[in-house]
Design a protein that fits this description.
Distance between the termini: 101 Å
Number of strands: 7
Number of domains: 2
CATH superfamily of the largest domain: Reverse transcriptase/Diguanylate cyclase domain
Oligomer: single chain
Largest sheet: 5 strands, mixed
CATH class of the largest domain: Alpha Beta
Structural class: alpha+beta
Strand order of the largest sheet: 2-3-1-6-7
CATH topology of the largest domain: Alpha-Beta Plaits
Shape: elongated
CATH architecture of the largest domain: 2-Layer Sandwich
Length: 215
């Protein structure tokens, strides 16, 4: 007389086991789907922080990294420097050779920046033909030296139109470097680097100027 009861218990156990397996399968699928969605979200986030043309950080990412870097510099008592770089006579180059060649120059500069900086540094396209490099744990002298290295590498490049074989000559860049002072605003920090950049341009271009804190 116990067999029917045992059969019912076995049936119930089998049913529960089947339901558990189905639930586990759905959970595994959900976990996989969540992981995929998280990867997609991270990809979109990276895209939102990346300049579409050059592949380096865009202005949005630059602003976020500079703010965080300034906070870390103050908290850790370490230096933070900034380089602003602008392509000399870029509008004239664009007007003469076309925007496609102009885009190639922007990509070239971005590549040189990426190849020259250290892992902790952040090269970014600040806007138009102006670029920037955030340099944690770097002195003003170190920033100026790096800017000169970049300037030298750019001016040694010969530009060639691959379609026609035409030699387009070379482009040069001007740069301004400065270092962060605790308590100053990010806007003032960037403005001092920009002032040094435009001093380099007013002084003849194809050069680097370094700026100390304004009195």
């Amino acid at each position: 007389m116990f067999k029917p009861a045992i059969d019912k218990i076995l049936q119930a156990t089998t049913l529960i086991s089947d339901k558990n397996r189905a639930l586990e399968s759905r959970l595994n699928h959900s976990t996989t789907e969540i992981s995929r969605l998280q990867e997609d979200l991270e990809h979109l986030r990276q895209e939102a922080m990346t300049d579409a043309l050059t592949g380096i950080a865009n202005r949005r990412r630059f602003d976020k990294v500079l703010t965080l870097s300034s906070q870390e510099a103050v908290n850790n008592g370490t230096p933070l420097s900034l380089i602003m770089i602008d392509i000399d006579h870029f509008k004239k180059f664009n007007d003469t050779h076309g925007h496609q060649m102009g885009d190639q120059v922007l990509k070239l500069l971005a590549t040189v920046l990426s190849d020259t900086v250290k892992g902790q540094d952040t090269p970014a396209r600040y806007g138009g033909e102006e670029f920037a490099i955030i340099l944690p744990d770097t002195s003003l002298d170190g920033a100026a030296s790096l800017a000169n290295t970049i300037r030298d590498r750019i001016c040694r490049k010969r530009l060639v139109n691959r379609a026609s074989g035409e030699d387009l000559g070379k482009v040069t860049v001007s740069a301004g470097a400065t270092t962060y002072y605790a308590g100053e605003s990010i806007e003032d920090f960037v403005a001092r680097a920009d002032e040094a950049l435009y001093l380099a341009k007013r002084s003849g271009r194809d050069r680097v100027m370094a700026s100390q804190k304004a009195a």
